[in-house]
Amino acid sequence: MKRFFFCCIIPAASIFTGYAQQKPGTIELQNPAPAVSGLVELDYAAVAAKWKALGQGAFRIVHSTTGKEVGYQLLTEGSDHPVKILLDVHLAPGSKMTVVLKEGKPVPLVKRTYGRYVPERKEDFAWENDRIAFRMYGKALESTPKENAYGVDVWNKRTDKLVIDKWYKRNNYHKDEGEGLDYYHVGYTLGAGGIAPYVKDSLWYSKNYTKYRIIDSGALRTTFELGYEPWVVDGRSVNVTKTISLDAGAQLSKMQIQYSWDGNESLPVAVGIIKRPEPGTIWLQERSGIMGYWEPQHGVDGTTGTGCILLNPVKEMKVTNGHLLAVSATDKQKSITYYTGAAWDKAGHITQAEQWFKYLQDQALLLQQPVKVIIY
């Protein structure tokens, strides 16, 4: 088994408002990171303060040089009004781009993210984008102990089409019929990046989620919330709410975890990845919060890579009790944020361990050095 250790630092994102001799509605984007950026968020209120036409009707966003239209999604993040504008742009390392807002109806986007409650399959909640799919398990699955599972499941895709509805209808998604399959085994583990309190060197699992809420559902980002019943962790009652989002083109979901309990002390927690019995490649970076795993090949099904990036400080990373574990703790708000996801070699985007680990490192760098936004 190979181990690689590297180091980087992960920060919080920021948005800047600049003043220059530019036409109102002009926005400059700058990527300081040595990696291709993901989608870019604009603060809706900050844009509205500069471009008075925002909120008064439909609007378009165009590249200032090419005139090509830039797709976008309005995000409400659970409120009754837009709070962010999510741009479908990707900036090369160290590059800049200028876009301009114009009045008029935007060109419709092809939907590239999706998530839904699946009552017909024992209350799964499944979500996907144009790269990969995931699911978590609902209360109804607990009635069948042989099928029950706790952690995050991975559905491997080799199509950019959305497949969740189609695969559930065919009911044999454990067989690859040309678009991919679900061969990832979770069971009573954290699966591909689940989380649990970690007290006295033990994982204290909750049961499966009991309620859900879809927060944003659009072409570029799907966000939803899962609620759980309280459970006992080392003698005290703990509750948790998980807010999960996935962007188009991404391999990783963002996980915002909010715990609650009586008391003000922090709660030790661990983010985990199930480890297979056969040799694979493990990549641990405690100081930067990156944990990667390239699984052993699963016969003719190929190979899955899984990985996590933690934004809260990591106490330690270790391989124990059938998992790769990143041990951390909740912050003063009793929360923890991390990213988790997977890649499949047969999808063709990431085909080797080194490529997967580079992807995780690049995503950490982008979190450290987010795209700067200057609104004129």
Describe the structure concisely:
The chain is mainly beta and 376 residues long.
How would you describe this protein?
A hairpin with a 5-residue loop joins strand 8 (113-118) and strand 9. The model is unreliable at 1-20 (pLDDT under 50). The chain has a domain at 13-109: Immunoglobulin-like, CATH 2.60.40.1180. The protein has 376 residues and is mainly beta. The strands form 5 sheets. Strands 1, 15, 16, 17, 18, 19, 21, 22, 23 and 26 form a 10-stranded mixed beta sheet that branches. It has helices spanning 44-50, 164-170, 353-368; strands spanning 2-4, 26-30, 40-43, 59-63, 72-75, 84-87, 96-103, 113-118, 124-129, 133-136, 153-157, 180-181, 192-199, 202-203, 211-217, 221-227, 231-233, 236-247, 252-260, 268-274, 281-285, 290-294, 304-310, 316-320, 323-329, 335-344, 372-375. Helix content is 8%, strand content 41%. The protein contains 3 helices and 27 strands.
Question: What is the element layout, followed by pairings?
Answer:
Elements: E1 2-4, E2 26-30, E3 40-43, H1 44-50, E4 59-63, E5 72-75, E6 84-87, E7 96-103, E8 113-118, E9 124-129, E10 133-136, E11 153-157, H2 164-170, E12 180-181, E13 192-199, E14 202-203, E15 211-217, E16 221-227, E17 231-233, E18 236-247, E19 252-260, E20 268-274, E21 281-285, E22 290-294, E23 304-310, E24 316-320, E25 323-329, E26 335-344, H3 353-368, E27 372-375
